[in-house]
Design goal:
With 321 residues, this protein is α/β, with parallel strands linked by helices. The protein is 31% helix and 22% strand. The structure holds adenosine-5'-triphosphate and magnesium ion.
Length: 321
């Protein structure tokens, strides 16, 4: 039942918030002391919004549905998103919930990530315009465990989108409760492309080894791309497994690199590229993301974005006729 000329390449239903990032904190952060950072950045955050923003700037036609609070944080987030070509015509606002926020505290070799979910728990399947979501070739879902309001109707929604000919991708991101069950197990068999990082895939498959996790999950999901930070990516299609090396870069931070990997991967995948080419595209956009704070600043800098993509041979998205 795939449509001849869908309006979008990708539709995304998901969360939006701002990231507040404090750089230069001491490696050890004692309690009850005033600790000084050396820099601060407020940027568009959240996996779904970062993907929607960056994928649209790679040339894909993206429709994004979200729920946002009627507050300053929500207005800033929407303004940032609105500077990209993403379609925001179905964004919902005006409820009582506040826009969520994530406070990121990189220090030493680790980082603390503290999220107030706010409106992101409130988006439900009943809020969604299924016709809008279905007018695409592909549907993507991020941050499964933050989107609690979506859980009850999600398997039914995904089945309906599949029935209408869309392919589906999922990036669970972390499960704050570390349970990795419930709706995840119900929707995994519907997913065409899974985009976890190396920690998440081990938790999903309940094993300590990425290889073993891939063995298990490849029986359920046709294509899996595992993000492995500074060691690049692993792709698994059926019994075929390929390691795809990273670019050599010095990151400012790696916040949102996984979501931006998803943007590069999906843009190549929708153009019909082979999985290893898609992973290479993801490694390029992931590395680009690390060159500026947060997940979208490198993409907002058009000169950096375009020169980096050309320099590293990013395969340009070409739309199917
Ligand atoms: N230090 C690095 N050098 C080169 N590439 C990197 C580096 N860090 C990240 N990347 C690129 O970004 C991709 C995604 O990064 P990562 O594995 O950190 O994702 P993630 O854990 O899902 O991140 P997120 O915080 O966005 O959810 C990697 O697969 C790689 O392509
Ligand atoms: Mg991630």
């Amino acid at each position: 039942m795939s449509q001849m000329n869908p309006r979008f390449d990708v539709t995304i239903a998901g969360e939006v918030n701002l990231d507040l990032i404090l750089y230069g904190l001491p490696e050890n952060m004692p309690l009850d002391r005033e600790l000084l950072g050396s820099d601060f950045q407020m940027t568009l955050g959240s996996s779904s919004a970062i993907l929607a923003h960056n994928l649209s700037l790679l040339g894909a036609r993206v429709g994004f549905v979200t729920r946002v609070g009627d507050d300053d944080m929500g207005r800033i987030a929407m303004q940032r998103l609105g500077e990209s070509p993403v379609d925001l015509s179905r964004v919902l606002s005006g409820g009582s919930a506040k826009t969520g926020v994530t406070i990121l505290l990189p220090h030493g070799r680790t980082r603390r990530i503290l999220t107030y979910p706010g409106a992101m728990f409130d988006l439900t399947v009943a809020d969604l315009d299924v016709e809008f979501l279905a007018s695409a070739r592909h549907f993507h879902l991020s941050s499964l465990f933050l989107q609690k309001g979506l859980h009850p109707g999600l398997p039914g929604l995904l089945r309906e989108l599949k029935r209408r000919g869309l392919t589906l991708s999922l990036d669970t991101n972390d499960d704050p409760e570390d349970r990795w069950d419930g709706v995840l197990q119900e929707i995994l068999p519907l997913v065409d492309l899974l985009l976890p990082n190396d920690d998440e895939i081990r938790r999903i498959a309940r094993t300590n080894s990425v290889e073993e996790a891939l063995d298990r999950l490849s029986a359920q999901v046709p294509l899996i791309a595992v993000k492995c930070g500074s060691t690049g990516a692993l792709v698994q299609q059926g019994s075929r497994r390929i390691q795809v090396p990273p670019l050599a870069v010095t990151p400012v931070d790696t916040i949102g690199a996984g979501d931006t990997f998803n943007a590069g991967f999906l843009s190549a995948w929708l153009a019909g590229a082979a999985p290893e080419v898609c992973a290479q595209a993801g490694n390029i956009t992931g590395a680009l993301s690390t060159q500026r704070p947060g997940g979208t600043e490198a993409f907002r800098d058009a000169q950096l974005r375009d020169s980096f993509l050309v320099e590293h041979g990013f395969p340009r998205f070409t739309r199917e006729a």
